[in-house]
Amino acid sequence: SSDPTPSPTTSPTLGPTASPSLSPSENPGVCFSGQTTVELESGNVKAMRDLKIGDKVLVGPNKYQIIYSFGHKLSEQDTADKIEYRKITMAGQNNSSASFSILEITPDHLIFRHGEDTPVPASLLDGTDLLVGKNREVLFIHKIETVYHHGLYSPFTADGTIVVGGALASTYPSFNKGSPNLVLAGFDTGISWHGLEHRFIKPVAFYCTVLSSKGCHDETYTDYGYNYATYAGVVIIDYLLEEVVNPVSQVIKVLLAVIALFLIVVAYA
Fold first, then answer.
1. What angle do CA 155, 223, 202 make, to 5 degrees?
2. ∠ CA 235-241-246 to the nearest 5 degrees?
3. HSE-up of 216 (CA within 13 Å, CB side)?
4. How would you classify the pairing of strands 181-184 and 101-105?
5. Do residues 164 and 38 touch, judged by C-beta distance below 8 A?
6. What is the 3-state secondary structure (H, E, C) of the chain?
7. Could you report the per-residue pLDDT of 250-259, keeping only the tens digit for each?
8. Quick one: which of 260, 263, 269 has its CA closest to 202?
9. Low-confidence ranges of the chain (pLDDT < 50)
């Protein structure tokens, strides 16, 4: 069949996609494509599909950390349907084609804009935004396209960041479409998804890097590619964000969410 890649656009919009029709807890919103590249400590470049737990990758200026886990890992052979990605072509300071680099990222995955501490969903980017390079330099957006590929990969690092295709990104997504912050019952809490998820995942990082003698090299995944520790968190988040018609139930759910978030922030701050 033909590749349903639409025409390039410099201002992607949210809306129905051709990604797999999955339940919310199975929706692949937190990934990079298999051909998106990272830089290893050796200086070599490696495609996301070839990354393994234990590989040391660039996470910031001259800083490398191991991939201790994959929150989501599904090979091209294991995805029946193609996944929607934002293909972002970037240029360095001289903004010339000679310095072009490319990353492919799902719309809800978080990426850093230059001069901002809180990463935003890739779906919010347009041609006027500036991104952050591997040495904190400015990257210009030359073009944004919507493309579709099989396979999706989401490696975790201790800092919760990773340099992909030459740009600094979070290793986490937003679970509120189009918002960098947690939104509950229509209220923007001001709590960034990046910061919240980084605190939530700390016990997994500690287990994989300190407690387990084997690391997490033998971690297993659901049919949709989530490792089981991540999947449990996704199910809880989906429950808390699910809209409820009964207002009393909604109030109870929001209170439970606030209590849970408070405990997470206090415990892992």
1. 35
2. 115
3. 27
4. unpaired
5. yes
6. CCCCCCCCCCCCCCCCCCCCCCCHHHCCCCCECCCCEEEECCCCEEEHHHCCCCCEEEEECCEEEECCEEEEEECHHHCCCCEEEEEEEEECCCCCHHHCEEEEECCCEEECECCCCCCEEHHHCCCCCEEEECCCCEEEEEEEEEEEECCEEEEECCCCEEEECCEEEEEEECCCCCCCEEEECCEEEEEEHHHHHHHHCHHHHHHHHHHCCCCCCCCCECCCCEEHHHHHHHHHHHHHHCCCCCHHHHHHHHHHHHHHHHHHHHHHC
7. 677 667 766 7
8. 269
9. 1-28, 268-269
And the tokens for 35? 């051909």
Residue 262's alpha-carbon distances to 97, 188, 229, in angstroms, are: 47, 15, 20
Q: How far apart are the C-alpha atoms of 134 and 168, rounded to whole Å?
A: 6
Give 21: exposed, middle or buried? Use CB within 10 Å, 0-12, 13-18, 19+. Answer: exposed
Q: What is the pLDDT of residues 179-235, one digit of tens each?
A: 999 887 778 889 899 998 998 888 888 988 888 767 788 888 887 777 877 777 777
Both tokens of 7, joined, read: 């025409």
Residues 209-241 as b or e (16 or more Cβ within 10 Å = b)? eeeeeebbeebebeebbbbebbbebbeebeebb
Gap between the Cα atoms of 47 and 36, Å rounded: 6
What is the rounded distance in angstroms from the CA atom of residue 41 to the CA atom of residue 192? 29
Candidates 108, 107, 71, 122; CA nearest to 233 is: 71
Residue 114 · residue 131 · CB < 8 Å = yes
Cβ neighbours for 113, distance < 8 A, ≥ 6 positions apart: 119, 120, 125, 129, 130, 131, 132
